[in-house]
Amino acid sequence: MNARILDLLRRGADELGVDVEAKLPQFGQLLELLQQGNARFNLTALKSEEDIVLKHFVDSLSCLRGGYFTASNRVLDLGTGAGFPTLPLALVRPDLRFTPVDSIRKKIGFVAETARALGLDHVTPLVGRAETLGRQTEHRAAYDRVVVRAVAALPILVELALPLLREGGLLVAQKGPIGEDELNAGRRAAGELGGRVQVVDPFGLPLSGDARTLVVVEKLRPTPEKYPRREGVPNAQPLFWKTK
Ligand SMILES: C[S@@+](CC[C@H](N)C(=O)[O-])C[C@H]1O[C@@H](n2cnc3c(N)ncnc32)[C@H](O)[C@@H]1O
């Protein structure tokens, strides 16, 4: 990573109150591994160093806004893709235990290789669909936090995530700007699944100012047995949400 890109990462993280200083070499290594991964197979649409640092690394670190993660939390990253937000979060939060999940084996293969190369022993990648994991005793109600970035509309996320959370656990969803309709559907879905939307926190990403919203949903009661519905149904027929 050249000095200008390093400085972007440092300033972006600084604005979020996250100290990356000791981890700069590992962030540099992560950047190289992503670029190599992109050359092998199309892992992420972002190719320039500046875009990767601002729109993947700093953007992922923004999930720490508000301080919703506490030491030793088991954190499931739903739809991690090439490892976001897990990999940047795991670099700065060795006190958390991460399970990045994706239905695409190739992506999880990359996340596992990268976590190994970076020495991130507290990251345990898993191939699977959230609908299926949410019905397995090993995973249902097993996590303290579900974190998610850029996967689906809020009512879909709520159906996929709440079954995986223990009571008192939190879904921390990092989204772009969110409209009233989506938010209302998300609130109703949360009620149906045993939770409640506790926080809606709009903010601008450091340096770029891009609009983001952190939505936090708390699980208050056990999720009814009928949820999540079978694979693909939460997306095809989102709860309380009319797709066009
Ligand atoms: C747009 S990508 C976002 C990846 C990453 N979170 C990021 O911010 O760069 C969405 C990812 O979610 C995965 N995904 C979508 N629905 C899923 C589900 N029900 N279970 C597991 N993975 C899912 C897809 O395979 C895809 O890799």
UniProtKB/TrEMBL annotation:
The gene is rsmG. Belongs to the methyltransferase superfamily. RNA methyltransferase RsmG family. Coiled coil: none annotated. It is found in: Cytoplasm. The lineage of its organism: Bacteria, Thermotogati, Deinococcota, Deinococci, Deinococcales. Its EC number is 2.1.1.-. Pfam families: GidB. This is Ribosomal RNA small subunit methyltransferase G. The keyword S-adenosyl-L-methionine applies. HAMAP family: 16SrRNA_methyltr_G (MF_00074). Keywords: Cytoplasm, Methyltransferase, rRNA processing, S-adenosyl-L-methionine, Transferase.
